[in-house]
Amino acid sequence: MSIGAWLIIILALGIILSNIMLLKKTANMKMPKRKEKAEPNEDVDDSADAWDKDNWGKDDWQKDNWDDEQK
Hints:
Elements: H1 3-26, H2 47-52, H3 67-70
């Protein structure tokens, strides 16, 4: 086998062993508790929601001259 093949094998074994060692180290750790979800704040601007609720029709996108509408 060439040196390149040996390097790839050693690198793969190193990655596998390091992942096993990391898993063994973190096996006894406790997961942090989830925080309670905050109450919805009424002061928040919902402009993104208003954008989603617009009433654009199919024909509105096919207009050639938009200046007529703005006058």
